[in-house]
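Q: Here's a chain of 237 amino acids. Please give me its 3D structure as C-alpha cells.
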Amino acid sequence: MALMTSQDLAERLALVQGRIAAAASRVGRAPSQVSLLPVTKSRSLEAITEIVTQAGLTTLAENRPQELATKAEALTDLPVKWVLIGPLQTNKAGLVAGWANQFQALDSLRTAEVLDRRLQSLGKSLDVLIEVNTSGEVTKHGIAPDQAMALARGLADCGSLRPIGLMTVAINSPDEAAVRACFRSLRQVQTQLREASNDSRWDVLSMGMSGDYEWAIEEGSTMVRIGSAIFGPRTAV
C-alpha cells in the first residue's frame, strides 16, 4: 500500500471534518458533540504516525486484538489511546486488558466476565460500549436490542468495566431509510438504559462509518468510526 502524503491526509481529513460539522449543523448540533475515531485497520505504522504527529488525532481504533496490541507496542513513544471496535474472543482478552483503552464491541456477559478478571489481575479498568445488532443481520456481531438491558445489568458485577455507551454497525445498504432505522434503534436502546439506570452514563453512541456517518450524526451519533474516508481505499494484500 502506497504511503499517503501529508497533503493527501490533510485534505481527506479536512473533508471528513467539514462533513461532520455540516451534518451536525443541519440538525442543530455543535460539531464538538461528535468525536472522530480514525480506524487504522491494515494501515502502516508510518500512516498512523502521520495522523498522530501531523493531525493531532491520538485516539485510534483497530478491529482485531492482535493488530491493536502489535501496533500499540510498536508505537509506545506516541501518545495514542487504542480502541478495539471488533469482536473479542475470550482467549484474546489479555491483549485487550493489556493494551486497549476502550472496547466497543462487548456483546456477551461471558466476555465481560473474562475481560473483567484479566483487568483485575492487572489492576486496571476499561471503558466499554455494548454492541447492539440493530439491523438483525445474522452476519453481524452484537446483541439484539431487547437483550441490551440484561447485559447492562450483568455488567454491575464486573467492577473493572465502565459501561459508557452503545455501538452499532448499520445495515450496508443504499436505502437511507433502512440505515437511519438502525441508528434510531440504537438511540431507543440508549433511552431505555438511561431510564432504567436513572443516569446518563450511556451517553456515547458510536455509530456511523465512512459510507453513512453523515446520516448517523443527523440521528444522534456522538462518535463516528472512519477509515477509508481518511486513509483511502485499502489495497488487497
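Q: Can you summarize the key feature?
A: The beta strands are 35-38, 59-62, 81-84, 102-106, 126-131, 161-167, 204-206, 223-226.
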